[in-house]
Amino acid sequence: MPDIVARRWQLLRAPRAWRTMAAAQAAPHLWRSFHPPAFLPLTPKTMKRIWLLFSQAVTVFAAAYFVVATLQPDWIRQGTKRSGAGIALLEAPSAPPGQPAPGSFSGAARKASPAVVSINTSKAVRHPRSNDPWFQFFFGDQGPQAQTGLGSGVIISPEGYILTNNHVVEGADEIEVTLTDSRRSRASVIGTDPDTDLAILKIELDKLPVITLGNSDGLAVGDQVLAIGNPFGVGQTVTSGIVSALGRSQLGINTFENFIQTDAAINPGNSGGALVDVNGNLLGINTAIYSRSGGSMGIGFAIPVSTARLVLDGIVKDGQVTRGWIGVEPNELSPELAETFGVKATEGVIITGVLQDGPAAQAGMRPGDVIVKVDDKAVGNVSELLTAVAALKPGTASTFQVQRTDRKLELSINPGVRPRPQRNVRR
User: Fold this and answer.
1) Which CATH class is domain 108-318?
2) Which CATH code fits 324-417?
3) Active-site annotation holds for 167
């Protein structure tokens, strides 16, 4: 017996590589008893035991699921919460703070909205018959009545300069600006440009939010835009759309037209507000809509920010926008007018009147002449001619290509300064 114990101790201390073989030689009967068979034979009795174990496990799992579903259903229904009345409701997982939803324009609106202001105007208006003695006899002396107006504007400088439409502030006695932080201030008119329907206001407040100017010349049809303003006085509103067209003209809205057309909803009160891109940069000033009912029909127009910058610089520097002028009355070229004046031209702008002693008359231009080019820039309609002439520098001679009857001429015209238009105030 002691020999066996000693031998087993030696086996336990032997290296693993030969420990098994030595054990088998020492006690072959014991080694065979610990060696498992290659597989366990599946007898009917064994199959019955396995089935019983499986069915019991399924029964226990089902019972546990029933208990949990009855007592703690929130453990099973993910996203479901109980309301105060005990009603199970599905709730979406909360988004990380500060992260906008996919496709959201909240960042652009958050960036541009503080710089868009509400403009309220008032004007004292008397009844047209208030001076009539019979009217005074029956109705008494009717004093002036306050007539109010509503529009929007955009703060474009920390110095307090605000860009808006001329028709928003035209003829107003008082102008009040309201910021998004509820601050109010009286505004003064720095200057207006009725030809483009733009006006520059100024307020005296500190820490003003200022919008970032974008590049309207880089716009393309289909670009997404936002319109921000105060429609109907309900408060600042943001609407979205796309650029529907560029360079819209001949609409009869302004003298100089180069509108951005958009389907973003623009309504009364939006005039003077901002048209911004998806980054919140200013692209244009919302001006007008095409509507049969007075509300938005998906056709709105905005003045490009490139035009607004020229107006801003001209008004702040000189008090007005300086444009070229040659003193002619242009008309669209038609076969009837061409036949009347005996001119053989198929394109260009026909001149039906020339101001006596004006720049064009001094250069030899006559009624019936057709202007084809201005400084090598082709003109196809009246709007293009007005824009080309307005861009000329007064006092600097420019070349006009003209067709007279069947001859082509070149006239050197020294443009003057375009007179400011005289307009009646309409509210």
Assistant:
1) mainly beta
2) 2.30.42.10
3) yes
